[in-house]
Write a structure and sequence with these properties.
The complex is a heterodimer.
Chain A lengths: L12 E2 L2 E6 L2 E6 L4 H7 L6 E2 L6 E2 L12 E4 L2 E4 L10 E2 L10
Parallel strand pairs in A: 2-8
Antiparallel strand pairs in A: 2-3, 4-5, 6-7
Chain B lengths: L1 E9 L3 H12 L4 E4 L17 E3 L4 H14 L4 E3 L2 E9 L2 E8 L2 E12 L3 E3 L12 E3 H11 L6 E6 L3 H11 L3 E7 L3 H6 L1 H4 L3 H16 L4 E3 L1 E7 L6 E6 L11 E4 L2 E5 L2 E3 L2 H5 L4 E4 L4 E4 L12 E3 L9 H20 L7 H21 L14 E3 L4 E2 H9 L5 H8 L12 H12 L20 H5 L16
Parallel strand pairs in B: 1-2, 1-7, 2-4, 7-20, 9-16, 10-11, 10-16, 11-12
Antiparallel strand pairs in B: 5-6, 6-7, 8-17, 13-14, 14-15, 18-19, 21-22
Helix pairs in contact in B: 1-2, 1-9, 3-4, 4-7, 9-10, 11-13
Classes of the chains: A mainly beta, B alpha/beta.
């Protein structure tokens, strides 16, 4: 099939893959990509429950405005769309029932 | 601790970075503050360190050239830094910045705002489902991580961005389930005369659309996503045909997909301008409420300059030139000389702006889109307030966005109203039988971005707190 927009997927080289922890689960991601990206690739779209009605929420604006993708690192809230993956990173979600550190 | 500069620029996109460079080249001491790790803004966003090698794109090349220029200049860049308050002072401006958890104060004779745009996303049932992201958000994922929003994605929205996102998904190896756009083919034809002025962009856009046709990706013109299926993850979307006013009137059609990119045009990010004391006026042709700024970047306030999409959505090409013009004006102001007239640059700006405004005209949402919402559709994502909550408040007497905000907290959550105020304005206008141009956004209040209380409080021990003696009984 003729493609006018070429497929560049095979030409992208990424940094090494590592695992980090998300709510006690080991998630693999590439070093230096955003945690939101790694989580979505690993099938974790649901990142938290809205405080008022418990609605399911995940990354939305992907640029640090909406605060929907908030997770916790070391007990502090961080936007997962701005946080980069590194080995040994421990991330806790703001889902209901998730264990806060 | 405060640091003193001639000029502080807020935003390092095409407008801000070019303004900073121009002023620095004119001999000014310039600081540039930006949220991202590297300059480039949303449109020329830099890659994250994850990407070791990748084919270049027009955006990555423009961004890399700009970053190179900034690196070789005397501009002092405060990266990963967020401005949360702006105050005018006797000596000029005081800008409060959060950097690495600490507050830094910058003092400058002149302030250039280049805060760019953000996306308007029309609330529809299910738009809060994880797996639904903004069209602009999708471009951020592409540019910084070269990542996809899902395996099979519906791309829906107005203007050229919907085709750019669909094309990037294909370029990065993903599958586009369908493109859904409220625009008609005829509207695109009408924009043709303005697009001919930028044959490079016209050809690029035509390739995106032709590629989608060749790949058999369905394009639903004059359609919108009316509902998203899925509890904790997207399982599909329902689309409907629209009227000329973009109200749904067709039979629902279901499309299976695991992700949705949704956006309805860009709107100027004007909170910083409001904080700095500028009035906003409604300009549908510029994407909504924006401050009054001329081509030289001058505003009604002394020592305050503004450029790029934050002055009205005219696109990246215009923003780049507007930045250069504004850098010239601001540096002339700092040196106390009359600004020179750069006619060639002014003409180039007008040309680029005409193209950008034709794209804005295609992107601006029409009234009918509001009727995609149901009574229980969430409008304010932070506080989980639905359309019926907002309408009840309006019917109880709230006649302005400010009164809805103080009554319901719609706009007081972590996002600061960035994703609900457009819709709330429209709901108020509808209830009053007026136009959205009669319903301005609420007063901007600090902090412009969320800031930890610890950063505001500074370092002190409990014993340092002055505790007054109890009053005698």
């Amino acid at each position: 099939m003729i493609r006018l927009v070429p497929n560049h997927a095979a030409r992208v080289q990424r940094a090494r893959s590592v695992t980090f922890t998300f709510d006690d689960e080991a998630i693999s991601g590439f070093v230096g990509e955003t945690v939101a990206t790694a989580l979505q690739r690993g099938g974790h779209r649901l990142l938290r429950h809205a405080p008022e009605d418990g609605g399911a929420r995940g990354a939305f604006c992907c640029m640090g405005l909406c605060q929907e993708c908030l997770v916790q690192v070391g007990g502090r809230p961080v936007e997962s769309c701005r946080l980069l993956v590194s080995a040994d990173l421990t991330v806790t979600s703001l889902k209901r029932g998730a264990q806060s550190q | 601790m405060s640091q003193i500069f001639d000029i502080v620029v807020i935003g390092a996109g095409p407008a801000g970075a070019n303004a900073a460079l121009t002023a620095a080249w004119a001999g000014c001491r310039v600081a540039m503050v930006d949220e991202q790790r590297k300059p480039g803004g949303q449109v020329w966003r830099a890659k994250n360190p994850v990407v070791l090698e990748a084919p270049t794109t027009p955006e990555s090349r423009s961004g890399d050239a700009l970053r190179q220029e900034v690196a070789c200049s005397t501009v002092l860049t405060f990266a990963q830094s967020r401005v949360w308050q702006i105050e005018s002072a006797a000596s000029g401006w005081e800008i409060y910045v959060l950097k690495e958890g600490k507050v830094v104060t910058l003092v400058a004779k002149a302030l250039i705002l280049a805060t760019g745009a953000r996306e308007y996303v029309q609330p529809v049932p299910g738009w809060t489902t994880p797996g639904v992201i903004g069209l602009a958000g999708a471009t951020a994922m592409f540019k910084q991580d070269l990542a996809l929003p899902g395996q099979r994605t519906v791309v829906s929205g107005t203007g050229p961005l919907v085709f750019f996102v669909a094309s990037e998904i294909r370029r990065l190896g993903g599958e586009v389930a369908a493109v859904v756009t409220p625009n008609s083919k005829r509207e695109w034809l009408r924009a043709f005369p303005a697009m001919v002025r930028r044959p490079d962009l016209l050809v690029r856009g035509a390739l995106w659309v032709a590629d989608l046709y060749l790949a058999g990706v369905p394009i639903y013109w004059r359609h919108a996503v009316a509902e998203i299926d899925g509890e904790t993850d997207v399982s599909g979307v329902t689309i409907r045909r629209l009227t000329r006013d973009w109200a749904p009137d067709g039979e629902p059609e279901f499309l299976g997909a695991d992700s949705l990119c949704l956006g309805n045009g860009l709107t100027p990010a004007a909170e910083a301008a409001q904080l700095a004391g500028l009035e906003l006026r409604y300009r549908a042709d510029l994407g909504g409420w924006c401050p009054e700024v001329d081509a030289s970047g001058e505003t009604e306030r002394e020592g305050l300059f503004l450029c790029g999409d934050g002055a009205g959505i005219r696109g990246a090409a215009a923003a780049e030139i507007h930045g250069k013009l504004t850098g010239e004006t601001a540096s002339a102001y700092v040196r106390g000389v009359a600004p020179g007239e750069n006619h060639l640059l002014q003409q180039a700006y007008q040309r680029a702006a005409r193209f950008g405004m034709a794209m804005t005209a295609l992107s601006v949402p029409r009234k009918g889109l509001q009727t995609l919402m149901c009574a229980d559709t969430v409008v304010c994502r932070c506080e989980s307030l639905t359309r019926s909550d907002i309408v009840a408040e309006i019917n109880a007497g709230a006649q302005s966005t400010l009164s809805v905000k103080s009554g319901l907290r719609a706009g007081m959550g972590p996002c600061g109203g960035k994703f609900c105020q457009g819709t709330i304005s429209q709901l108020i206008a509808q209830a009053k039988g007026g136009e959205v141009s009669d319903v301005p956004p609420p007063t901007a209040r600090p902090p412009l971005r969320p800031i930890p209380v610890a950063a505001l409080a500074g370092d002190f021990e409990y014993d340092d707190l002055p505790i007054p003696k109890p009053a005698p009984l």
